[in-house]
Amino acid sequence: MTAHEPSTDQPTPSTPGHPFELTHDITLAATPDQVWDAIATGPGIDSWFMGRNEVEPREGGTASMTMFGNTEGATITAWEPGRRFAYRGTPGEDGAYMAFEYLIEGRDGGSTALRLVHSGILTGDWESEYDALKNGNPLYLRSLAQYVEHFPGRIAVPVTVFGGQLPDQETVWAKLTPALGLSEPVSEGDKVHFTLDGERIEGVVDTMLEPSFLGVRTDDALLRFVGRGGVVVTGHHVFAEADPAKAEQTWSEWLAKAMA
Question: Contact at 8 Å (CB) between 29 and 74?
Fold first, then answer.
């Protein structure tokens, strides 16, 4: 496995769906065991990916993700602790599904090379969905890198809320950046400052893809603002004691004000 190898695979048209496979590599400042805990346990996945997750630790077991009251299930197809973890989602009525495979390889100095192979069948507006996956997967892996480097061993409370519908992503970006105390052009490393529920929050931009993804790291959170089609969604990970319902309400009010 070679780290940082570019993703070159393209979806192959077929009927009725479109098979795809994307490969992404990243080197992480963590041991293989730390990476395994982050990618193959529910609390670990909660701390950098999406939604609330559960993992049954065995091949043939189940994995699930819950977002906005909807739970999607998957079957674990490979379980080799410290080396390989894979699962495949249940196909929909149209045959669409997604599968994830993680390959772990230790490196000198305590670092780890991780390969993600994301495959499956896309239907409907598959070209748009494919582009979203191709751009989005590396961003989530960047969040994983931030997690294992800056919050090793800690467990986050995921906070996911929707903002209102706006005309386009450019409008979302134009409202979001000043709300975070940022000015154009935004660059990774820029300082962030804003008020949340009466408390001053300070952080740094750690990941950015204008105008669809903005990642901010604070002392106790990874804040992720994900946009598509004029809607912004938070995918935050809070590494402090927090009531999930209250945190979601607080961020929903903040986002509504920012997007007004």
Answer: no
Predicted TM-score (pTM) of this structure: 0.90
Same-fold call for 18-150 versus 157-259: yes
Q: Which superfamily does CATH assign the domain made up of 157-259 to?
A: START domain (3.30.530.20)
CATH code for the structural domain at 18-150: 3.30.530.20
CA distances from 118 to 10, 25, 115, 178, 208 (A): 12, 11, 10, 35, 22
Q: Which residue, 188, 83, 84, is CA-closest to 142?
A: 188
Query: For residues 181 and 192, is the Cβ–Cβ distance under 8 A?
Result: yes
Per-residue confidence of the chain (260 residues) as pLDDT tens digits?
544 444 444 444 444 789 999 999 999 999 999 999 999 999 999 999 999 999 999 999 999 999 888 999 999 999 999 999 999 999 999 999 999 999 999 998 899 999 999 999 999 899 989 998 999 999 999 999 999 999 999 999 999 999 989 999 999 999 999 999 999 999 999 999 999 999 999 999 999 999 999 999 999 999 999 998 999 999 999 999 989 999 999 999 999 999 99
Task: At 83, list the tokens.
Answer: 């080396």
Domain borders along the chain are 18-150, 157-259
Token pair for residue 10? 């393209």
The answer to whether the CB of 45 falls within 8 A of the CB of 53 is: yes
